[in-house]
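ok trying this again, last paste got cut off
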Amino acid sequence: MAREDIIRMNREELKRLHVIHKVIEGRLKQVEATRILGLCDRQIRRIVKRIKEEGDEGIIHKSRGKASNRAFSGDFKEKVINIYRDRYYDFGPTLANEKLFELDKIKIGIQTLRNWLIEKGEWQVTHKKRKHRQWRERKHYYGEMEQVDGSHHDWFEGRGPNCVLMAYIDDAKSRVFARFYEYEGTFPFMDSFKRYIRKYGLPHSIYIDRHSTYKSTKKPSIEDELNNREPLSEVGRALKELGVEVIYARSAPAKGRIERLFKTFQDRVVKEMRLKGIKSIREANEFLEYYLPIYNKRFSVKALKKGDIHRPVLQGTDVDAILCIKTERTLRNDFTVAHNKKFYQILDHINAKKVIVEERMNGRIFISYKQRQLNYKEIDKRSKKRPKQSITETPKKRYIPPVDHPWRKFKMGNYPQTYTYQQKEKRNKKEKELLLTKT
């Protein structure tokens, strides 16, 4: 079947052609056609003229089937694909587009790059089925709530030691503060929180998970039950002393903002550090000081209401004395305290049974009683075991009282229960001989 006379048009062109035919037939005025098609009167006149000269094909755009004047050449396309395969093989299209512009000075649209990667099989679009979660509105003010968590991940991709990223994200603005540590624990949290409040101030509340570092797993004591309170971890105790409210999340999706941040950082930050050859925690923390302002400027949002809820630390507050590990220890009769297999001699005279041992983040030890620091010195542990008897030493003879000893003045046959049968017989025989000699 011959197909030379078939004209391929889209719906918009068919709609225009129908209206233009009405104009050509005189059944519709050009002014009315401009209102129906949304075109100016000059464009309507040009289309009418073209259809009269070329027929119905005149309605088709002349650039159809031709390459765009702004299209990239095939060589440029292959160059971009080769750079992606060589340096950015596991980057997403968005991040790869940023690095191509930043490092390789290649400017290209994100969707264009995505289409090229999909065409070459370098990228696949995946659609995951998401579980239904109840939406929670953001807090209204900056500093009203900070979501805090630690992320365990191979941040250096085998180039350096294992580490944890302690991160803070504001619930209202999504502003991020983060720092790398060797592990997730009490001191890493306290150090990161100290740096946070030094930079921004004390937040109103903290949203955190139920990790044993943050929420105590101890059973309530009788005193706790009487006062209707829960036992606190060292982190909970320190935050309470600083006046920061602690909110414990019951699931990971409940604090989804910080979880999504970790997903983003495990993609972006890992690859940024790979490009810079970072392989130590010190270098990574120096990189974050440069990277986070750029990230916050781009991805932070505007809070619903103006105002900063962060408050400064009260003047005269010793933050180091709060952000530490406090342990109650017994003060012995000789004014010594045992802590972590070490002994400390208290030099001040106090009338107390218990003292508080403070372990600071810098490794120093402070001992206090009723918020008064005590003078002390570290001493060697005294041995409580008796020295073993030497083999060469002769054992001492057991003392046996003589027969006429007052202790032995008792009636015949009444012997102490501690004597053995042989001892009783021996002493009985001696007493009989003594009586015979007297008689």
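PB: full thing came through this time. Residues 44 and 130 are 49 Å apart (CA to CA).
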